Amino acid sequence: MRLCVRHGPHLARLREVSTPEEVTAHVRKMIPIFEAMQLEVVEAGRNTVAARLPAAPNVNHFGTSYAGSLFSVAEVLGGVYASTSLVLEGAVPLVKQVTIDFLRPATTDVVARATLTDETIERVLAETAENGKSNFDLDTEVVDAEGTVVARTRGLYQLRRF
Questions:
Q1: What is the pLDDT of residues 84-107, one digit of tens each?
Q2: Range of 111's domain?
């Protein structure tokens, strides 16, 4: 697996990464609030990525998971692909739009999971290499410890070369 490490505002350097723990450390470095939220990447595959969000530091005044935290654990997955399969020198993923449906209150740790097909990955890489950018949709489910889907997102992302 490869990790895109940014140096300066628009440059990227690639290096090998072998574990979700290394991707977690990178994500927490790039987006420091994720350290306080204790966000953890638990799956960093070519097609499927997932992140866990513990309940304790993300609770709201009702004793359930804060809506912004649920949004964040789902939204960040589009960026995690830059460490797994959407790896292209000088390219970074950008979020253009995300909608979320909050389905049930979350009172336990949650895991957000998303999957891209091989066809989507190859298309995005080819279009970005040729045109400097490519859009892709990403659907995410956020599931609690009992397996109940508590939220769903639909995001429009763009892999863009700078």
A1: 999 999 999 999 999 999 999 999
A2: 2-161
* CA atoms of 121 and 126, how far apart (whole Å): 9
Token readout for 68 is 């912004």
pTM, rounded to two decimals: 0.89
Note the helical H segments in 7-158.
20-30, 33-37, 67-75, 77-80, 118-131
CA distance between the termini of the chain: 22
Q: The domain that contains 109 carries what CATH number?
A: 3.10.129.10
The DSSP symbol for 62 reads T
Q: How many alpha carbons fall within 13 Å on the CB side of residue 142?
A: 32
Among left, alpha and beta (phi > 0; psi -120 to 50; other), residue 42 is alpha
